[in-house]
C-alpha cells in the first residue's frame, strides 16, 4: 500500500519531499529525478533551493513527465521552459543532464521511443514527483490510458485544457495534444511521490488511493507500485475513507524508516 502523509500545508509537503530528495542525492550523486510541472510540485522545488545549497548536484539527472505537442519552443509555458525556469536554473542542475519529451512536430513520430531509450540508458528514474489532475490523470495520461503505456502522444481532455487555461492568454491557446510518459513508464520509477493540494483534488486522490484500480482513473495505477508516497493537505485528503488510519500510521512510523 502507498504511504499516505496528510500535512497541514503545501509548504510542509514541499519540505518533506525535498528532504527525501536531498537524502537521495547525497547517497546517489547521479540520481535520476522524475520532474513534474504544474502548480503542485512548486513547493518541493522551493524547499529544495535552500536544502541543496552545499550539496553537489552537478551529476544529478532529470526527466520531465510530459510536454505539449506543437507548442512554440519559446513559449513561456512550454514544459521545457517551465522545467528550466522552475527547476534547472534555481537548483543549479546541469541543463545537459535534464530532458523533456520533444513535442516539436518534426520529430514527433519517434519522440516517444527516443525518450524511452534515454530513460533506459539512464537506468530509470529513482524518484518520480507526480501531481494529479482533477480527472485523475498522472503525467498527461488521461482516463482510459493503458497501464502498459509508454511515452506517446495523447489528446488532452477538455477538462485538462480548461484546468491549464490559467497558464495561457486564451483557453483556445492550450494545445490539444501532448507527449507524455505512459503509465507503464511511470510505474518503472523506483519511488513514486504523488502530491495533491486543495479540495478540487479530493475526489481524484480518493480514487487513486482507495478506488478500484482502473484505467478510468489513471492515478489508481499507483496501487500497482511497491513504493509510493502520497502527500496531501487536509482538503485534498478530505475524501479518503481511511484517513484516520493514515494519520495513525504516520504518527507511529518507526524512525528508521525513510519515506
Ligand atoms: P496542477 O496539475 O499541479 O497544476 O494542479 C496537476 C496535473 O495536472 O498533473
Task: Offer a concise description of the structure.
By secondary structure, the protein is of the alpha/beta class. Helix content is about 35%, strand content about 15%. The chain has one domain: Rossmann fold (3-Layer(aba) Sandwich).
How would you portray this structure in words?
The chain has 259 residues and is of the alpha/beta class. The chain has a single domain (3-251), classed as 3-Layer(aba) Sandwich (Rossmann fold), CATH 3.40.50.1360. Helix content is 33%, strand content 16%. It has helices spanning 10-27, 42-51, 79-91, 108-121, 158-164, 183-187, 202-210, 243-251, and strands at 3-7, 32-35, 61-64, 66-68, 98-99, 127-130, 152-155, 177-180, 191-196, 228-233. Strands 1-10-9-6-2-3-5 form a seven-stranded parallel sheet, with helices on both faces. Strand 9 (191-196), helix 7 and strand 10 form a beta-alpha-beta unit. The longest helix is centred in the N-terminal third of the chain and has 18 residues, at 10-27. The chain is globular, with a radius of gyration of 17 Å. The chain starts with a strand and ends in an 8-residue tail after the last helix. The model has no long low-confidence stretch (mean pLDDT 97). It binds 2-phosphoglycolic acid (PGA). Residues 38-40, 131-133 line the site of 2-phosphoglycolic acid.
Numbering strands along the chain, what is their spatial order in the largest sheet?
1-10-9-6-2-3-5
Total beta-strand segments? 10
The helix-and-strand class reads: alpha/beta
Largest sheet: 7 strands, parallel
Task: List the uncertain runs.
Answer: none
The assigned CATH architecture is: 3-Layer(aba) Sandwich
> What's the structural domain tally?
1
- Global shape: globular
Name of the CATH first level: Alpha Beta
Approximate strand percentage: 15-25%
SSE run = EHEHEEHEHEEHEHEHEH
Span between termini:
13 Å
Tell me roughly what share of residues is in helical segments. Answer: 25-40%
What number is the mean pLDDT?
A: 97
**CATH third-tier fold name:** Rossmann fold
Can you list the ligands bound to this structure? 2-phosphoglycolic acid
Regarding quaternary structure, how should these chains be classified? single chain
Radius of gyration, in Å, reads: 17 Å
Amino acid at each position: 500500500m502507498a504511504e499516505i502523509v496528510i500535512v497541514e500545508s503545501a509548504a510542509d509537503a514541499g519540505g518533506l519531499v525535498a528532504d527525501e530528495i536531498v537524502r537521495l542525492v547525497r547517497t546517489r550523486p547521479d540520481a535520476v529525478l522524475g520532474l513534474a510541472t504544474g502548480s503542485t510540485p512548486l513547493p518541493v522545488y522551493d524547499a529544495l533551493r535552500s536544502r541543496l545549497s552545499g550539496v553537489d548536484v552537478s551529476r544529478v539527472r532529470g526527466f520531465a513527465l510530459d510536454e505539449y505537442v506543437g507548442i512554440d519552443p519559446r513559449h513561456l509555458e512550454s514544459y521545457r521552459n517551465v522545467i528550466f525556469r522552475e527547476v534547472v536554473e534555481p537548483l543549479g542542475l546541469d541543463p545537459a543532464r535534464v530532458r523533456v519529451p520533444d513535442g516539436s512536430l518534426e520529430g514527433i513520430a519517434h519522440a516517444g521511443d527516443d525518450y524511452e531509450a534515454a530513460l533506459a540508458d539512464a537506468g530509470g528514474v529513482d524518484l518520480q514527483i507526480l501531481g494529479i489532475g482533477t480527472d485523475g490523470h498522472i503525467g498527461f495520461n488521461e482516463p482510459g490510458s493503458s497501464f502498459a503505456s509508454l511515452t506517446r502522444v495523447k489528446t488532452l481532455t477538455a477538462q485538462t485544457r480548461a484546468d491549464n487555461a490559467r497558464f495561457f492568454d486564451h483557453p483556445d491557446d492550450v494545445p490539444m495534444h501532448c507527449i507524455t510518459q505512459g503509465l507503464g513508464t511511470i510505474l518503472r520509477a523506483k519511488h513514486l511521490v504523488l502530491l495533491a493540494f486543495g479540495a478540487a483534488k479530493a475526489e481524484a486522490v480518493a480514487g487513486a488511493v482507495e478506488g478500484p484500480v482502473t484505467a478510468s482513473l489513471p492515478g489508481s495505477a499507483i496501487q500497482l507500485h511497491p513504493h509510493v508516497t502520497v502527500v496531501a493537505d487536509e482538503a485534498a485528503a478530505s475524501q479518503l475513507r481511511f484517513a484516520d488510519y493514515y494519520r495513525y500510521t504516520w504518527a507511529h512510523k518507526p524512525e528508521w524508516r525513510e519515506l
